[in-house]
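Field reference: sequence -> structure
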Amino acid sequence: MRESESSPRLPKDPDRFRLEFLPFERRTIQREGLEFFGMFYRSEQLQKMKNCGVKSVMLKYDPTDIRTVYISADDGIFHEARSEFFPRDPMSLDEWKEHNKRKEKRLQAAMNAPDPTVVHDHRKQILAEANRRKKAISRFDGYPQTHGRDIRDLGDPLGFSVPRKLS
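Structure field:
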């Protein structure tokens, strides 16, 4: 067997070869750029396409790193467009979806938190009820209120004398 038959042929353009196997979608160019999975992508070439009247483009993306997508206006030439949310490290599509789920949970928790004014009003109601009960207990029938005086100076409402120690 000859050596040329056993070794695989390498593509002339490895980047183009890789692009051929990436998933793709058609997207409409919006004023803010291209929206994809809740992220906006922008590039100079995308703006030029929009200025030339191109309405939609072919968008290819790498699910293992969604920071950059590749766009083409049906001429076979792909250009990079970068995300406005551009993390330092590669972020996969699954990581991005998980990030969005965590963000949504935090938002729901914030939305479900009680309104501070409602909490304040409820607290005022609890304190008012406690004060009313306290006053009702202190106005026990038949016994005078002390108002900070020594109870031995009041005398006994039942007629018993309270012996007093002389100091």
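Note: The chain has five helices and six strands.
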